[in-house]
Amino acid sequence: MNLPGPPSASFGAFELRAMAALLAQGRTLCAASLLLTAVALVGLFVSDWRAPLWLAAAAGALQLYYAVRVDFDARLLQALAARAETDADGGVARLDAALAALGLRKPGAVARDWPARWRGARALLRKQAGLVILQSAALLAALGNA
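RESULT FIELD:
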């Protein structure tokens, strides 16, 4: 599902909160993935070595990386939404400066417009969801071979 991003000229607190709410769904994905990872790890300890169980555990570890990134973006968008009403640019310049100061963005990097930021955030969430689906499929395959 590829939803169009808001026009770069007109965004505000509502759009920021809506995107933060969408990204917050990654927390549910993370919880499901942690459960699936636990099942895979238990399966590895109580049964013989099975590639699908290893795949499920590895996908769970990689999903955790995306979960951290998605949650970070959601929290940044929530913070931006709180400032969008008072900052002329919605806090984007301040956000980019803070990320650069923390070493999370290259200083002087080309600024992205909001549609590009939305696409990037949604791509992270889709990768996270894809890994949870991969984990589920791997566990089902392991159960099918049991």
